[in-house]
Amino acid sequence: MTTGSLLAFDLVIAVLAAAGWLGGGAAAAAGQRRVALGVAAGALLATLAGAVTTVLLARAGWWFAAEKIIIGGPLALAAVLAAAPRLLRPPADIRAAAVALLFAGYAETAALLVTVLHGYPVSAGPALLAVAGVGAATALTWRFLGPRPSPAVSRAAVAVTLAALVTGTGLAAARGGAQAVHHAHEPRDVPSVGEPTKRFTLTAGTAVVPAGGRDVAAWAFNGQVPGPQLTATVGDVLEVTLRNQNIQRGVTLHWHGYDVPNDQDGVPGVTQEAVLPGQEFVYRFRADQAGTYWYHTHSASDLGVRMGLYGVLVVHPARPAGVEVIVPVHTLVGHPLPAHTEQRVGAGTPVRLRLINTDSTTHRYALAGTPFRIAAIDGSDLRAPSPVAETAVLIPAGGRYDLVFDAPASPVALVVDGRVVWSTGALDATTARWPVLDPLTYGDAAPRPWSRYDREFTLVLDRGLDLKGWLPRYAQTVNGAADPDIPSQVVRTGEIVKLRIVNRSLEVHPWHLHGHHVLVLSRDGTPATGSPLWLDTFDVRPGEVWEVAFAADNPGMWANHCHNLPHADAGMTLHLTYA
Ligand code: C2O
Ligand code: CU
């Protein structure tokens, strides 16, 4: 069982345990002896099973089980100690067992809420609130279902509950304490990177564009989705003028995966102000990395990208060869792009497919009809990529894979999530059952460039209740906090930084650090053995732990976020900053 499925299983068990004790208690209160004993016995089993899953999760990593052990453990123990004797020796009148069974139900519910609403890291506030909740609920139950406790007992219970409630609320509200992200935007000159050799103008505006055989209302650069393809050759100096015609939410250009200087990175509120209707902004940077990239607005990025404000950026090496096919996959207002194109390619011609996932979720790509190699991932060439066939690749949100092959005489087809998007002829390919390539074991290893790390950060990804804003929200969290309350990670120029990303949620999080490429060290404790993987976006699946490292060589304040853009919006965004 993977840690991801263990997390899900543990959650189901916890719900069953809580519901079982509460149901058993209710049945006991109603005098339903058989039902009460049967359901409560089930709850006891679920509680014991929960102890087992908790131990297994702790073995996968303390992050996965900390609160279950420190807060949930004592609550479950109290539940079992109070309720189990009533099960083993049921009272003649089952109603006498109701309070104990309900108490167990409250305790298990409180433990479940601590996991679902709070999670990692463990803190005293939620623990005390949980105890207070259990105490209050039990006191009320006692009042209504009697026997009346002695005045001393009830006074003590009230005191403990109140104390826990007050301290818990205080501690829960005080948690976090991140320094807010402040930025000054001094008016600045366009940075001098030399005379531009390639000039583009991108004008953002509302438009009606064809998608999926109909016209849809979109937001577009120069009236088209995707926006114009920006191509350059290594050594070019790009100058891109961004104009906003009428996008009220503002626009910017972020060069996804391109490690530009910080003031060119296009993150509103961090590296520049959003470009509002009627305004413009000029980006200038040197194209010094060849490869497949893309650009997109970073202003209201979830909505903006979904509506169509994105395009392709390809930087060619000095001598490109053969046929090149660029496939940016996108879901535009529910319609998958691009439409199928068929292209004749002469046998023996070298072909490079530049696959780009501009959506917020993973896509599965399968190339049928030919063996192929994965020449590059996220713009970086792989070392000694071997030919593979009948193998699919999963590209994370924001990620890019370059597949290369020599065109055979027979047809070839590229299938994305079961849909043919590009082919060289008619081919009936069934690719659904193909195995998926693991990039961590693909290609030839090379010695790591670093053997020690100057700094280490751990990011634990989860969901949790965020009470910091105007309205409480169920946020996507990092280390128990949500944007803008996640502390920035501070590094110094020249340091080698290790980043550990732990996913204790039930969703995939495509992690994306701006301004740097990270080298993958390990996943779930198993070192990467293939070609060095320099990524800007990687999927951290439920229960996974990734270790990556990067050289802090690009000073500034950088966004570091989940590229499932609704998640980024819902709190899963923090910043990397240089001291
Ligand atoms: Cu492609 Cu901050 O994102
Ligand atoms: Cu996410």
Helix content: 25-40%
| Contiguous runs where pLDDT drops below 50 for at least 5 residues | 176-180
C-alpha termini separation: 42 Å
Which molecules are bound besides the chains? CU-O-CU linkage, copper (II) ion
Mean pLDDT: 93
Instruction: Give the DSSP E fraction (strand runs of 2 or more residues).
Output: 25-35%
The number of helical elements comes to 8
| Biggest sheet overview | 7 strands, mixed
Please give the oligomerization state of what you see. single chain
Q: What is the CA-based Rg, rounded?
A: 28 Å
Structural class: alpha+beta
Entry keywords:
579 residues; alpha+beta; 7-stranded mixed β-sheet; 6-stranded mixed β-sheet; 8 helices; binds CU-O-CU linkage; binds copper (II) ion
In words, what does this structure look like?
The chain has helices at 3-29, 33-60, 62-88, 98-118, 124-145, 151-174, 301-307, 565-569; strands at residues 198-211, 214-221, 230-233, 237-244, 254-256, 280-286, 291-296, 310-316, 323-332, 335-337, 341-342, 350-357, 363-368, 373-377, 380-381, 392-395, 400-406, 413-416, 419-423, 455-466, 473-478, 489-491, 496-503, 509-513, 518-523, 526-527, 534-535, 537-540, 545-551, 557-562, 573-578. The model is unreliable at 176-180 (pLDDT under 50). The protein contains eight helices and 31 strands. The strands form six sheets. Strands 20, 21, 23, 25, 26, 27 and 29 form a seven-stranded mixed beta sheet that branches. Strands 10-9-12-17-14-15 form a six-stranded mixed beta sheet, with no helix packed on it. With 579 residues, it is α+β, with helices and mostly antiparallel strands. The chain is elongated. β14 and β15 (380-381) form a beta hairpin. It binds CU-O-CU linkage (C2O) and copper (II) ion.
